Amino acid sequence: MNSDIAETIAELKQHPGKDIWLYGGAGLIKTFITLNLIDAYRISVYPVVLGSGKPLFENLRERLELKLTDTNVFRSEVVQIIYESKNQ
């Protein structure tokens, strides 16, 4: 199944158009990270502290090397940090 995902993304990248936006849970994101299919990470931080929850990235086998490329602060006090993958 993972090879199908990698092949589909490679095919999509050959077509003109906009970026591919991945939005999903930890399992889906982990699959794309493992297959080295993510070029940029847009992480939004909300001004709420929870006592518990799921990790943002769980059970990764290797360290992700990221480079900060931009930040955005919204009126809602949400902060968005944007990183590029150094592993590309």
From TrEMBL:
<keyword id="KW-0472">Membrane</keyword>
<dbReference type="InterPro" id="IPR050765">
    <property type="entry name" value="Riboflavin_Biosynth_HTPR"/>
</dbReference>
<feature type="domain" description="Bacterial bifunctional deaminase-reductase C-terminal">
    <location>
        <begin position="4"/>
        <end position="78"/>
    </location>
</feature>
<protein>
    <submittedName>
        <fullName>Dihydrofolate reductase family protein</fullName>
    </submittedName>
</protein>
<keyword id="KW-1133">Transmembrane helix</keyword>
<dbReference type="InterPro" id="IPR024072">
    <property type="entry name" value="DHFR-like_dom_sf"/>
</dbReference>
<dbReference type="Pfam" id="PF01872">
    <property type="entry name" value="RibD_C"/>
</dbReference>
<keyword id="KW-0812">Transmembrane</keyword>
<dbReference type="InterPro" id="IPR002734">
    <property type="entry name" value="RibDG_C"/>
</dbReference>
<feature type="transmembrane region" description="Helical">
    <location>
        <begin position="20"/>
        <end position="38"/>
    </location>
</feature>
